[in-house]
Design goal:
This is Phosphotransferase. Helices cover about 45% and strands about 15% of the residues. By secondary structure, the protein is α+β, with helices and mostly antiparallel strands. It has two domains: about 70 residues, Phosphorylase Kinase, domain 1 (2-Layer Sandwich), CATH 3.30.200; about 190 residues, Aminoglycoside 3'-phosphotransferase, Chain: A, domain 2 (Alpha-Beta Complex), CATH 3.90.1200.10. Helix 5 runs parallel beside helix 9. The chain is globular and about 60 Å long.
Amino acid sequence: MEQILGQDWTITPAGGSTGEAYYAQRDSKRLFLKRNSSPFLAVLSAEGIVPKLVWTKRMENGDVITAQQWLEGRELSPEEIKHPRVAQLLSKIHHSSELLDLLMRLGKRPLDPENILQELKNNEQNASFINTQIEIHQAVRYLENQLPYVQNQKKVVCHCDMNHNNWLLTNSGQLYLIDWDNAMVADPAMDLGMILHWYIPREEWDVWLETYGVEFDEQLLVRMHWYIIAQTVSFIQWHKHRKEENQAARWLEDLKRLMVKLGIINI
């Protein structure tokens, strides 16, 4: 990073799972740097969904470094996800034809639920998961049974990680959705299921979805259930593959609670 900015910049790691993000500061100038971020970032910046993209530079080794405004602010608390501004921004993303067109031109193929299920089943049958908990097997069977009800749905740009710490509220009051590394072209129920199940009380779903711009119905409910189960199983498998047993166990408990709530299993 120093060869791009110069020795008079102070560069510190910004954390995150990839270890490829940095903060840079020189006097009053501050930037957020990332290595090999998606070209998608430029359109997200132009749409006001992420902080402004300042520049993009390609290094001699082929890496691409992007610099964005470093804005003072904070992540949203879990309770703040209920705010109408969150629903409105997510609706803007899901209904943007510009974002969808670019992501498709970048080679992102629409995510088919049948392919999601097949990948989960392949992981389940992998030798490292042979002794895994019965709940994962039950979840996969549920996904198989419900598959016909989630196929052939309209696809949009999905962020795919609705964690509250990806929602940035700046000190000036601007709301952003950051960390787009896992973006997909998929059923909007993927994002909606995560955000509603994790953060919104069940009795408030109708109002939240009305602000988002859709009417709550049984078909949407089935699709959200399908994707939240699939994503939770995927998280378990991902952590187990990385031998992060404590994290896998926490997601497994979430899966159990979710399947009990949905009536898939009994206590």
